[in-house]
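Same chain as my last thread, 238 residues:
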Amino acid sequence: DRSRDYGTSNFYGIGIKNIQAEIFNKAGFIFEKPGRSIGTMFSARYHKQDMFFGLRSYQGEQKSLYVNLIYQDIVKTTDHIVKVGTSLVYDDYIQNYNDSSYDRIEIVPGVFAEYTGHPHKKFTMVAGIRADYHNLAGMQITPRLHLKFDPSEKTAIRVSGGRGFRYANIFTESSMLFANSREVIISPDLDAEVAWNYGGSVQQKFKFLKHPALLVIDFFRTDFENQVLIDFDTPGKL
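reply #2:
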């Protein structure tokens, strides 16, 4: 009973309430030339979350807007496809934890380019790069590369890597940690998380007891340049 438990010490109560609405639109125009097109994507999202754990309470509200414009064309043949475009991300966060406010606004305009190539029927390459200007994190360059090689019809080898960045939403992503007796201390100068991801996989098709079977071996690793961590080692604190 939220009305009975919320904000009182009569009982230890836990309550989480979510309200979410989203509008999404995707449209495009295809030219007469093969492989040439223009596409647009638009989404607007509203998310409200109220939580309480005993005497601890959190109220969060997010208003998001995403706009994307993509132009695609071929280079001589459809074996070589290029995409260029621009995007805008707007996130308005209103957050209150107990008596403290953790509001922030993120505005991220950016441009990007991507190349998809099939120089050989057994080889595929996707290479892309983004340049985004984040109002809090500054200029961010995020490249990525995906390679796929098919030495035979039953074997596929994939290798990929890239860079990413974001600001962590510590309350909604770690809500289960607030259901304890530790004192929660939040650093006032949390920077954006930045990481490099890379790895690969080998896929092999074969017959097992006369039935089709698939064996996949993969390995992926993430190296952080900066990461938001939870301190479990200090007694009585998080």
